[in-house]
Design brief:
Structural class: alpha+beta
Low-confidence stretches: 319-323
Strand order of the largest sheet: 4-6-7-9-8
CATH class of one domain: Alpha Beta
Strand content: 5-15%
Helix content: 55-70%
Order of helices and strands: HEEHHHEHEEHEEHHEE
CATH architecture of one domain: 2-Layer Sandwich
CATH topology of one domain: Heat Shock Protein 90
Length: about 375
C-alpha cells in the first residue's frame, strides 16, 4: 500500500516524552508559585520597621517583585527541561525501538523470499520479545510449509508424469505396430487413465482439506467408522482380512464428507498394508472429555519408528513404492493428516510391537468459535 510519509515513531515518542516533561515542569512551577503566594502580600514591596526602632527596617517584597524575580528563573528551568526532554526522549525512544528495528529488517528480508533468517532477540520476555518469538515461529512454520510444498510439487509432477509417459509409450507402439492387439491397448490405457484420475482427485481433495473450505457440522464418528468398514468389507474379504468395529456414540465436529474420507483412507490403508493372509483390522471410536478419538489398528510387518514418521508425507507407501490394484496413489495418510489438521485435530502413528500400525486421530467435539 502506497502511503504518504509521516513522522517517525521515534520522533513522536520524543515529542511525547518532552511534552510530558514540560507539562510536569509547568505543574511543578505552578504549585511552587501558588505556595509562595500564600506568604506574599498583594501590595508592592514595602519597608517594615522593626518594633522598638532598634533595628533597621525589613524590606517585604510584593507579588510583582516576586514575579520579576521568579519568572526568569522559571523560564530558564523550562528551557532546560525542553532541551533535556528532547535529547533524553530521542535517546530513550531509540533504545526502546531498537528491537522493533530488528523485527522490521527481518520482515523485509522475509519479504524477499529468504525464510531462513531469524530475529533471535535475547533477554527477558517482554512485548517486543514475544512479538519477535512469534515472528520467528511463524517464519519457521512458513519455511517448513514451503519446503513441504516444494517436495509435494516435485512428487506430484513425478507421479503425474508417469501415467502420461506410459500412455504416450502405448500410443507410440500402437502407431508403429498396426497389428498390435487393440483390446489389450485399450485395457492398459484405461488402467493408466484411471490411475491418473485417482491421483488428480486425491490432489484436489488434499487441496480442499488444506484450504479448510467446508461447513462445520455435528457428526458421529462411530457411524462414519461403520460406513467406511461396510464400504471396504468386500476388499477385506478378498484379502482374507478380518474387520472389527467397536465404540459407542462418539460425537465430533467437522465436515461429514471429509471425516468419512479420513476414516475410509485409514481403513483402506490398514487393509492394503496388512499380512498376506489371516490379518485383521480393528476400528475403535472413543469419546473423551476434551476430544473424540478414532483409532485404527492393523496387523502387518514390523515397522521401524523412523519409517513410520515418513508415512504421512505425500507419495510414501508402507511397503516401499511397490503397488497392486488397490495400493492407492500414496496420498492416503497425507490426506488424513491434512483433514485432521484442518479440523484442529492431530494424527499419531505408532508401530505395534507385534507388527503392523496403530493410527490415532484426535478430533474436536465442538466447532471453533466464530470470530466476529
Amino acid at each position: 500500500m502506497d502511503r504518504p510519509p509521516g513522522p517517525s515513531v521515534r520522533l513522536k515518542l520524543t515529542l511525547s516524552y518532552a511534552g510530558f516533561l514540560m507539562v510536569a515542569g509547568l505543574l511543578l512551577i505552578a504549585v511552587v508559585w501558588v505556595f509562595l503566594l500564600r506568604y506574599v502580600p498583594e501590595r508592592v514591596g514595602t519597608i517594615v520597621q522593626a518594633p522598638g526602632g532598634g533595628m533597621p527596617g525589613l524590606f517585604v517584597p510584593g507579588r510583582n517583585d516576586l514575579w520579576r524575580a521568579f519568572a526568569p528563573k522559571a523560564a530558564l528551568a523550562m528551557g532546560f527541561l525542553l532541551v533535556f526532554g528532547l535529547v533524553g526522549g530521542w535517546l530513550l525512544a531509540g533504545r526502546m525501538l531498537a528491537p522493533l528495528d530488528r523485527i522490521t529488517r527481518a520482515t523485509r528480508i522475509a519479504a524477499t523470499g529468504s525464510l531462513g533468517h531469524r530475529i533471535g532477540l535475547s533477554g527477558r520476555r517482554d512485548e517486543f520479545r514475544e512479538l519477535a518469538d512469534a515472528f520467528d515461529a511463524m517464519l519457521a512454520r512458513l519455511e517448513a510449509h514451503v519446503a513441504e510444498q516444494q517436495r509435494f510439487a516435485a512428487n506430484a509432477s513425478h507421479e503425474l508424469r508417469t501415467p502420461l509417459a506410459i500412455s504416450q509409450a502405448l500410443l507410440d507402439v500402437a502407431q508403429h505396430d498396426p497389428q498390435h492387439d487393440s483390446a489389450e491397448l485399450l485395457a492398459r490405457l484405461r488402467a493408466v487413465n484411471t490411475r491418473a484420475i485417482d491421483l488428480t482427485e486425491a490432489l484436489l481433495l488434499l487441496s480442499r482439506a488444506d484450504q479448510r473450505s467446508f461447513v462445520w457440522e455435528h457428526v458421529d464418528l462411530s457411524l462414519l467408522a461403520e460406513e467406511a468398514t461396510e464400504t471396504l468389507l468386500p476388499l477385506a474379504e478378498k484379502r482374507g482380512i478380518t474387520l472389527e468395529t467397536t465404540g459407542d456414540v462418539t460425537p465430533a465436529a467437522g465436515s461429514p464428507a471429509l471425516l468419512l474420507q479420513l476414516t475410509t483412507n485409514l481403513v483402506h490403508n490398514a487393509i492394503v498394508h496388512n499380512l498376506p493372509e489371516g490379518g485383521s483390522v480393528r476400528v475403535t471410536t472413543t469419546l473423551r472429555p476434551a476430544d473424540a478419538v478414532l483409532t485404527v489398528e492393523n496387523t502387518g510387518e514390523q515397522l521401524a519408528p523412523g519409517r513410520v514418521s515418513t508415512l504421512t508425507e505425500p507419495f510414501q507407501r508402507g511397503s516401499g513404492r511397490a503397488r497392486d490394484d488397490h495400493a492407492g496413489v500414496g496420498l492416503g495418510l497425507a490426506i488424513v493428516t491434512s483433514i485432521a489438521r484442518a479440523h484442529g485435530g492431530s494424527l499419531t502413528l505408532t508401530p505395534r510391537a507385534e507388527g503392523g500400525l496403530r493410527v490415532t486421530v484426535h478430533l474436536p467435539t465442538e466447532p471453533p468459535p466464530v470470530i466476529s
